[in-house]
Amino acid sequence: MAYKEYHIRPWARGFGQYEAEESDGIAWDDERDLVGAMRRGIAPADLYELGVDGLPDGIEDIRGRIYGEPARIFAWLDEHGCAQYFGIVQV
């Protein structure tokens, strides 16, 4: 099995929906290694998994509103305080 990171962006047609699209990253053999790499790219304390972690103000639980929804969804607040979402998909 392999795992890839997917970016989650607002759906172009709006309606409060989102869509997941594959990032240009490599496939990882171990899901834990991919999560670790994502945490290293962002301050670990600032990375939240939806449905697992308590979410700070500014991050919304968007599960169920994502076309091509990944099994695991993560979020962080960027330097402008805007939520950025991404997920992990088994490929």
Please render the helix and strand layout as text:
Elements: E1 3-10, E2 18-22, H1 31-41, E3 48-49, E4 66-67, E5 72-77, E6 83-90
Parallel strand pairs: 2-4
Antiparallel strand pairs: 1-2, 1-6, 3-5, 5-6
What would a concise description of this structure say?
This protein is mostly beta strands and 91 residues long. The chain has one helix and six strands; from the N terminus they run ββαββββ. The protein has one domain.
How many individual helices?
1
Q: Please give the alpha-carbon distance between the first and last residues.
A: 7 Å
Helix and strand sequence:
EEHEEEE
Strand content: 25-35%
| Oligomer designation | single chain
Main sheet: strand order: 3-5-6-1-2-4
Q: Give helix % range.
A: 10-25%
Shape summary:
globular
The domain count comes to: 1
User: Largest sheet, described in full?
Assistant: 6 strands, mixed
**Average pLDDT:** 91
